[in-house]
Write a structure and sequence with these properties.
CATH topology of the largest domain: Alpha-Beta Plaits
Helix content: 40-55%
CATH class of the largest domain: Alpha Beta
Structural class: mainly alpha
Distance between the termini: 100 Å
CATH architecture of the largest domain: 2-Layer Sandwich
Number of helices: 7
Shape: elongated
Strand content: 5-15%
Strand order of the largest sheet: 1-2
Radius of gyration: 28 Å
Length: about 220
């Protein structure tokens, strides 16, 4: 037996519109607050270029915002927005001072939106790799063998990379970085789909490291 279902609109379209508008007014737009914080951070990034490192190859501190998440849907005021930033230091900087500066900057920008709350969490603290005086012998040994194998002089220079080698330096263990392949990150096309190393460069680099270790360990 056919059944009839009765429907009833309990609110008129214009009433629904007014209700939605009132709900938007009562909501706290997290994205609007974050926009002010991001603007302050990007302005701060521009000023970081004024700080220069005395180490060859290292230029200035950097700041990058690489991940942003937030919002539910197009018609919903975002209630929460999270972002991650990467603030890289130069060896001359103090980690505690850098973090305090960032926290103060974010707090000051957040005051423009007092109805919003901000939480800052440190995910990782990586101190810069600071060269030790005892690394000079290691550098000279690698350079000597590199000159023999490659036929060119390899300069000792700093590089703005994230490396676990910092843990050894922090413990007082002499350490240097030496790798096979192109001389710069751009030449290596790093962090791209076609990042690669040529086999003859790998063989040359392996030989140089092996000869340098033999000398440093007293194997002749």
């Amino acid at each position: 037996m056919p059944q009839t279902i009765a429907t009833h609109n309990w609110m008129r379209p214009e009433s629904i519109k007014r209700t939605i508008e009132r709900m938007r007014e009562t909501g706290v737009d997290a994205l609007e607050a974050v926009n002010g914080i991001l603007t302050a951070l990007y302005a701060h990034r521009g000023m970081l270029a004024r700080t220069r490192s005395a180490i060859t190859g290292i230029t200035s501190p950097t700041l990058n915002i690489g991940l942003i998440k937030g919002g539910i849907n197009t018609n919903v005021v975002p209630d929460q927005v999270a972002f991650r930033l990467d603030r890289r230091m130069i060896p001359e900087e103090d980690a505690g001072q850098v973090e305090a500066e960032l926290r103060a900057l974010i707090a000051a920008a957040a005051k423009q939106h007092p109805r919003s709350s901000v939480e800052v969490q440190r995910l990782l603290l990586a101190h810069p790799l600071t060269p030790l005086p005892s690394t000079e012998r290691m550098v000279a040994t690698i350079q000597r063998h590199a000159r023999q194998i490659l036929g060119v002089d390899i300069p000792a220079t700093g590089v703005q990379l994230y490396t676990d080698a910092r843990h050894y330096a922090a413990a007082g263990v002499p350490i240097v970085l030496y790798g096979a392949g192109p001389r710069s990150i751009l030449e290596a096309n790093a962090h791209n789909a076609n990042e690669n190393v040529r086999l003859h460069d790998l063989r040359a680099g392996t030989t140089i490291v092996a000869l340098a270790l033999a000398d440093l360990l007293g194997a002749g």
